[in-house]
Amino acid sequence: TANLLLKSEKLSMLGQMAAGIAHEIRNPLTSIKGFIQLLRSNYSNHYYFDIIFSELERINSILGEFLILSKPSVMIFEEQDVKTIVKDIITLSNTQSILNNVQIFLEVESDLPKINCNKNQLKQVFLNLLKNSIEAMATGGIIEVKIQNKGNGEVSVIIKDNGVGIPEDRIPTLGEPFYSTKEKGTGLGLMTSFKIIESHKGRMVINSKVNKGTVIEVIFPAITQQYLEV
Ligand code: ADP
Ligand code: MG
């Protein structure tokens, strides 16, 4: 729809700008971090230095998310198994999920076609989504991940949590930068994910109910037999 096109245009302009600025800010930031560390060793009270350092780290991670947006120009797409990518990410999220009393269950259909993708970018997407689900369950809970062959030349990954949920009127605006309900959130994870999925010709469908939970389905075009024989 017209609405979707507009969103992708906005994102690509924003991405170019963001990448340029992120590059420029990273260099002075690195030298500031170095000098702060030097100063810290001269003082016995490290408290203020630690705050400065953790805030600098925060700026650094925001810049990191922006830099992902600049990658598509040099992106390499390869034939990949979604299952392997998702399994890797679940393993990677293990420490965070255990700390938060969250259990992750994975269900994989046996007959899954491969997809054409950039592995690192997809890892970033699933990491963002799992992280959001874990963060949505302050007292712990269950995340169900399901990978399925949609049967129409598409593969989908469904991530379901029973967390705080998202208000209905907020759902259409998700993907806009800097919307975050978290004290330490950047509000960039979903924007980056939308952008990456879009560059893979996929789509993301979000369903949610406040106090019930959220279901996010990420759908990718599968590599079809026809395509392989060309
Ligand atoms: P951040 O995680 O830094 O806040 P995101 O772009 O990843 O930024 O997410 C934006 C916002 O969308 C979150 O702050 C949260 O309010 C909402 N959100 C995203 N995923 C979920 C989820 N699984 N459950 C509840 N809220 C979510
Ligand atoms: Mg997030």
From TrEMBL:
GO terms for biological process: sporulation resulting in formation of a cellular spore. It is an enzyme of class 2 (transferase). Keywords: ATP-binding, Kinase, Membrane, Nucleotide-binding, Phosphoprotein, Sporulation, Transferase, Transmembrane, Transmembrane helix, Two-component regulatory system. Residues 20-224 form the Histidine kinase domain. It catalyses: ATP + protein L-histidine = ADP + protein N-phospho-L-histidine. The keyword Repressor does not apply. The keyword Disulfide bond does not apply. Its EC number is 2.7.13.3. Signal peptide: none annotated. One of its GO terms (molecular function) is ATP binding. This is histidine kinase.
